[in-house]
Design brief:
The structure holds three protein chains of three kinds. By secondary structure, chain A is of the alpha/beta class. Chain A has a domain of 225 residues: Rossmann fold (3-Layer(aba) Sandwich). Chain A contains twelve helices and twelve strands. Classes of the chains: A alpha/beta, B mainly alpha, C mainly alpha. Chains B and C meet through α7, α10, α11 and α12 of B and α1, α6, α7, α10 and α11 of C.
Chain lengths: 326, 317, 328
């Protein structure tokens, strides 16, 4: 197996607040191969965005990495001094955030923001930098780039803005892009375009993507593998086709069941009863146990790690070989 | 904050409720900050002194019978020429500075708090009206607010005072001076409250629980007072605490300028004004001690207001 | 853009008229102008004749229009106290106040903004905490108290600086300036510092708070995610975005310096419009009060207008859009 581009091992992110220390991300591990698209799916508050922030070194204090390691192409990056980390950002790892309107500085032209980013990482003459900026704009599908490069963000529509954001993220040709809910704030028709754009660009440049979203449809279309997160842990991870067709973890099963299917004969939408626990209220043992239809005593006492479960890996005692008959 | 419909609350025993207060985050952040605790202590001391002035002041400086010119211009007790009957010295008329400070703080606090309360009343009412009624009422009220905002508080208060002065004979002025002052200061400060309440009202007005109440047919007055008010008043209270310091400061400034409380019922500002004349002749204690007390009072109220604002700020949780 | 200008101009005129109305109401209805002008022995008939001659029994509208007309020419009648034309008194006192206000505003900006930026960027250094503590004190100490303390230390105890007056003043035509003589400069130091302190701390806290808000925005996060240097993020993006709203609020604050000058001029016996106003209030000298009101109203309106214009120039979103960002 080729060496993974990104390796996250036993990452733990804590939030000390007032008198307590809350665990936002609890011991997660995964890898992303070069050129691979890993989807990270889960409800709001499950820890998806925080994972991205932790990898890129942008956790806002008092959030901090309490344990674990993050390795990029064999090089450890979670404990780097800030200047070294800064050089990695943009150059090796790029990021895209949810709201394209607030991601761009309203007081600067997009040309200025692009050229500034290019200058930071690449040693080009001003003219060459501008040319590259124009090329980037064209690559992300902005017509009339020559004129629009001197426009301000508010003069673009939502979809166009997100294209600009993508252009900014790939400006220095990073090897990995962390895309945090890139289509959530956009109209459905535009969503498809942006996803297609991302797919094409990453295919063309061989960029790996960590695609964070709560939209299973986007994952099914775009990702190679998917990780399902719940209350700060990864509960299932595996190839997309396998996870979607044969979900192993009860939570994933619930998610898949809840997706309404056209042509189905069901009268009511299925749902998973209850709600994901908030940060300070995560139960002992398996975080999903209160809502799990198949929970047993052991689930409430001890939280399972990822266990091989046929085609995928699932963090569920159901797949503990010791319990199951051979 | 509790939203929506009132429910009958079961009577709660006091002890567990108290324990919840002490356990709460608010109290914890209070204890954690030594500065805030110090501020609270200082404020309590001064407020206590002011409230209990008639009982704990060693002399009554405004009773002409007990004041003698023979005691005039005594320095504080620890300096040469001073005595412990007048711990902080006396002024040029023989009045005890310490007692004057106690009574003066009383007036300063009274005027300051009354002004804030009045401003709160005016501002919250106008804000609720503007937010609830919208349309012309809203526009009118906000235009008035805008014009008012162009003028700093001092100017407005001075103006009102000057007008009143022009309209009344001199002797009547002293009696109602404190009320004129309270009104003048309140009229300078109401806009902040009005704006905040209006903004909150506009947001809350469209929420379901208000819509529901309207559909049921609850009268507007009941809706505004019973449902809307409790939900919009939170941030206003924090502003009010911070404003208290500003109100006390404004009153002191006006008194110092000679258009506030008169020398017959002096606040701390008036005391400083009186004492200013003697600064050059070396009798510094007449104005410096009231000055120190004033500064400490305003500072501690400011610190408490700051702490309260940070502690109640949901974003910092 | 033109439409906006016209609208703001219209609003400005409206405010000025309101102010003029209040001033006029003061003038005519507070106290009796006739009583202040004549002796106590004047007969009622004579008073009525005087009233008619001066046009004081004309209708409200006529009198108001007359008032506005005169005011526009700078004619506010005679001061009750000094029996001199009010316009003349104001002209004498204005340079003193304007010079003082200008120095104070400059100080407040030059010191307040950098301090605000520093404490905004470096939250936890000891210097930041110290500055913050001092700023709290600055906001809590009444201006007059600061003035008194400064006088005590620098004039009474040390004797370095004069405690009252403007020092030697040089006249350039109608203007008188104390800034060109050493004596004048020494005299303006304490009043300017006193006047600027409150605004300085306010501006510092404002810049700091705004900086915090900006540093938490998504575009700053994205800028960092792109690997821009701290310098580019803090000064290229954050600072720029901080200063835009600060300009407006600071501008308005500085306008109020002219009003706060009242206090400082009283403490230092600075012969400016503020001192003049206080004396007028004590004496119930209505013409002077009315004139001061109109003048200050005028200053505010002009400053508001300029600040609005500036904001429009600086924020590109406003050049195209019709809507204005609402300031808190």
């Amino acid at each position: 197996m080729p060496e993974p581009l990104l390796r996250v091992e036993n990452l733990r992110v804590e939030l000390p607040i007032r008198r307590n220390v809350l665990t936002a991300i609890d011991d997660i591990s995964f890898t992303i191969g070069p050129g691979e698209v890993l989807g990270v799916v889960g409800e709001s508050g499950a820890g998806k965005s925080l994972t991205g922030a932790a990898i890129i070194g942008l956790l806002e204090p008092p959030l901090r990495i309490a344990a674990g390691r993050v390795t990029l192409a064999g090089r450890r990056i979670d404990n780097l001094p800030s200047e070294a980390m800064r050089r990695i950002r943009g150059r090796e790892i790029g990021a895209i955030f949810q709201d394209p309107l607030t991601s761009l500085n309203p007081l600067c032209t997009i040309g200025r923001q692009l050229i500034e980013t290019i200058h930071t990482h690449l040693d080009l003459s001003p003219a060459a930098a501008r040319d590259r900026a124009l090329a980037l704009l064209r690559e992300v599908g902005i017509a009339g780039a020559e004129a629009r490069i001197d426009h301000y963000p508010h003069q673009f529509s939502g979809g166009m803005r997100q294209r600009v954001v993508i252009a900014l993220a790939i400006a220095a040709n990073p090897r990995l892009i962390i895309a945090d809910e890139p289509t959530t704030a956009l109209d459905v028709s535009i969503q498809a375009q942006i996803i297609a754009l991302l797919k094409r660009l990453c295919g063309d440049h061989g960029t790996a993507v960590m695609l964070v979203t709560h939209d299973m449809g986007v994952i099914a279309e775009t990702a190679h593998r998917v990780a399902v997160m719940y209350a700060g842990r990864i509960v299932e991870i595996g190839e997309v086709a396998e996870v979607v067709a044969h979900p192993r973890h009860p939570y994933t099963r619930g998610l898949m069941d809840a997706i309404p299917r056209i042509g189905g004969r069901r009268q009511r939408l299925r749902q998973v009863d209850g709600a994901m626990p908030r940060l300070g209220e995560i139960p002992q043992g398996c975080a999903f146990s209160p809502r799990c239809p198949e929970a047993v005593d052991r689930c409430r006492r001890q939280g399972p790690n990822l266990l091989p479960a046929g085609g995928t890996e699932a963090a569920c005692w159901l797949y503990d070989k010791v319990l199951l008959p051979a | 904050m509790a939203e929506g419909v009132f429910t009958a609350a079961a009577p709660v025993r006091l002890a567990p409720k108290l324990r919840r207060v002490f356990d709460s985050d608010l109290w914890w952040s209070f204890r954690r900050s030594p500065v805030t605790v110090a501020a609270a202590v200082m404020a309590l001391v001064i407020i206590g002194g002011a409230v209990f002035a008639p009982w704990i002041a060693p002399h009554d400086p405004w009773d002409p019978a007990s004041v003698s010119l023979l005691d005039a211009s005594n320095p504080p007790a620890w300096l040469e020429g001073g005595s412990w009957t007048f711990p902080l010295g006396t002024d040029n008329q023989g009045r005890d500075v310490l007692s004057a400070i106690l009574y003066g703080s009383r007036l300063s606090l009274f005027v300051g708090s009354a002004a804030v309360l009045l401003a709160l009343l005016i501002g919250v009412t106008l804000g609720l009206l503007a937010g609830w009624c919208g349309g012309l009422t809203d526009t009118i009220i906000m235009r008035i607010a805008d014009v008012k905002l162009s003028f700093p508080a001092i100017l407005l208060a001075l103006l009102i005072d000057g007008v009143v002065r022009g309209m009344l004979p001199r002797d009547a002025q002293s009696e109602i001076a404190s009320y004129v002052l309270i009104t003048a200061i309140a009229l300078s400060f109401w806009v902040q409250y009005a704006r905040t309440v209006r903004a909150s009202t506009l947001v809350e007005r469209n929420k379901e629980y208000i819509q529901a109440a309207r559909v049921i047919g609850v009268s507007p007055a009941k809706i505004i007072l019973g449902h809307l008010l409790p939900n919009v008043i939170g941030p206003v209270l924090v502003i009010a605490t911070i404003n208290l310091a500003l109100a006390i400061l404004t009153e002191a400034t006006l008194s110092f300028l000679g258009v506030g409380l008169p020398p017959t019922q002096p606040s701390l500002g008036t005391l400083i004004r009186n004492g200013n004349d003697y600064l050059f002749s070396g009798d510094w204690w007449i104005s410096i001690f009231p000055g120190v007390v004033l500064a400490v009072l305003i500072l501690s109220v400011n610190l408490l207001g700051d702490w309260l604002r940070d502690a109640l700020n949901p974003k910092l949780r | 853009m033109i439409a906006f200008l016209v609208q703001r101009l219209f609003q400005a005129v409206l405010v000025m008229l309101t102010v003029a109305l209040i001033a006029f109401a003061l003038f005519n209805y507070v106290g009796d102008p006739i009583s202040s002008m004549v002796g106590q022995d004047t007969s009622v008939a004579d008073r009525e004749r005087l009233r008619h001659e001066l046009g004081l029994d004309d209708s409200f509208i006529v009198q108001f229009v007359r008032f506005v007309g005169r005011a526009a020419r700078g004619d506010f009648g005679l001061s009750y106290q000094q029996q001199r034309p009010v316009g003349q008194i104001i002209l004498e006192k204005m340079p003193a106040t304007l010079e003082l206000s200008f120095m104070a505003a400059a100080l407040a900006l030059v010191i307040g903004v950098p301090m605000g930026i520093y404490t905004g960027l470096h939250r936890d250094t000891w210097l930041s905490q110290l500055l913050l503590a001092l700023s709290l004190v600055g906001v809590s100490l009444p201006t007059f108290l600061i003035g008194i303390l400064l006088i005590l230390v620098f004039a009474v105890v040390l004797g370095w600086l004069p405690s009252f007056g403007r020092g030697n003043v040089v006249h350039f035509g109608w203007w008188s300036s104390g800034l060109v003589t050493l004596d004048g400069v020494r005299a303006i130091i304490m009043p300017a510092v006193t006047l600027s302190l409150f605004q300085m701390t306010l501006i510092m806290r404002l810049v700091r708070a705004e900086m915090f808000e900006v540093l938490r925005t998504d575009y700053i996060k994205f800028a960092r995610a792109r690997g821009l240097t701290s310098r580019a993020v803090n000064f290229g993006h954050a600072l720029k975005n901080t200063l835009v709203p600060v300009i407006t609020i600071a501008g308005l604050q500085l306008g109020s310096i002219i009003a706060f000058a009242i206090i400082t001029e009283t403490v230092f016996q600075w012969p400016g419009m503020g001192l003049m106003f206080i004396q007028a209030v004590s004496f119930a000298d209505i013409p002077v009060m009315a004139a001061y009101l109109v003048l200050v109203g005028f200053f505010f309106v002009v400053i508001n207008f300029v600040v609005d214009l500036l904001y429009h120039v600086v924020d590109p979103r406003l050049r195209v859009d019709r809507e204005r960002a609402v300031l808190g």
